[in-house]
Design goal:
This protein is an all-beta fold and about 70 residues long. The chain contains no helices and five strands. The protein has a five-stranded antiparallel beta sheet, with no helix packed on it.
């Protein structure tokens, strides 16, 4: 799906996590930075994705049952 159609926030005004391309990462919109961000363990926080994604997909549902 084109990135222009990606959700910018959810029902509770929190950002919705999505999968993005070309990074193949779980990301979400950050209104303060006006861009899509991902969590980085190196900086222990969220960082802007560079370059910004061009396409997205909703996260798949979690697996059912016990691992």
């Amino acid at each position: 799906r084109p990135i222009e159609t990606a959700p910018r926030h959810g029902d509770d005004e929190e950002s919705v996590s999505i999968l993005t391309y070309p990074h193949y990462r779980v990301t979400h919109w950050n209104a303060e930075d006006e861009g899509f961000v991902r969590y980085s363990e190196f900086v222990e926080g969220y960082v802007l994705i560079d370059p910004q994604p061009t396409h997205w997909l909703p996260l798949p549902p979690p697996p059912e049952g016990k691992p």
